Amino acid sequence: MNDELKALVRTIPDFPKPGIQFRDITTLMLDRVGLARTVDALAATVDGKVDLVAAVEARGFAIGGALAVKLGAGLLLIRKDGKLPGATIAEDYALEYGTDRLTMHVDACAPGARVLIVDDLLATGGTALAAARLVRRAGADLVGARFIVDLPELGGAKALRDAGIPAESLFNFEGH
Question: Which Gene3D superfamilies does the entry link to (predicted)?
């Protein structure tokens, strides 16, 4: 089934800059059967109770909301800097093509909450590691991270494992 889902992801060369092969999941999300199977497949990788799904802006929101409903969990939004009202905590991180900052509300999750991070794609792991630092700073129990796509050559899965974060993806794409 994962090969069928992988076939629904289009590749856009040289975006956002030359040499990057952008893996665009919006085509997968347009397919109602593919979207439902993606959510089911991600949910099947989760063992035990999850209190919150921490979805990373922006494509992580779409898949994270659906996964949270499937898991009977709440949805914690991890946003880019300046997007959340109220008091926030922030973490800077490196992308494969630059730097950025993630934030979440200081009261978004209670200490001890079981939190699963979800995003569409795992590249260098910088975004997921920043999200993990935010969740851990709030005192939550980070149970893992889930992705639709992994780009294994960029080392994100290893970086997450090295940080003690169990990570799974539905399928890989070779290259950048």
Answer: 3.40.50.2020
